[in-house]
Amino acid sequence: MAHREKHRTASIGWLRAAVMGANDGIVSTASLVLGVAAAGADKSAILVAGVAGLVAGAMSMAAGEYVSVSSQSDTENADLERERRELATEPESELNELTAIWAKRGLDPALARQVALQLTAHDALGAHARDELGRSELLVARPVQAALASAATFAVGAGLPLAAAWLSPPQRLALVVSASSLVCLAALGGLAAYVGGAGAARGALRVTFWGALAMAATAGVGSLFGVVA
Ligand SMILES: [Zn+2]
Prior knowledge:
The chain is mainly α. Helices cover 83% and strands 0% of the residues.
């Protein structure tokens, strides 16, 4: 009976990207809201600025992710093309290369040769992609998926301080937005650290510290504008 094994690798990548996206959304939108509030703007102006920040942030995250993952995908595909060419033009040296890879993994030379021969007969390009280039189906670059996931997690994160601003009475807005955002950041930071196998408290503290710093900085700048205006 095959036993079920839960490896973290598959989920860690996605979860870390999701948490980072949400953290960005919380920090940048909460800071924007607090900055505009500190400048003395009324609630509707604050909410408009917050929504604009959410949309702008989500779009820029998607664009950045799409561009960076696309260039990763381009590199991967170029490597695969070169491998395909080398397999067609120099099959013997490619076979030796695959044999050497398996020998280095601990197989004795005769067995390594046999494995290389069988893998080559079965799917030469697949074997080289996996064993030589380290390419795995799990980690293949998917630009559109990555862009959408990044925009969505940012938008969810940004929605938290925005909802807090919308729900809070004007005179309590800064307090409610900053407190609720810091609590969400601590929870996300702790979760990301815990899932990554690190200490949740340290992860929470790290994210909360930088979030508080960003919010304080923008509120400071906003209040300067409030004084000047
Ligand atoms: Zn090769």
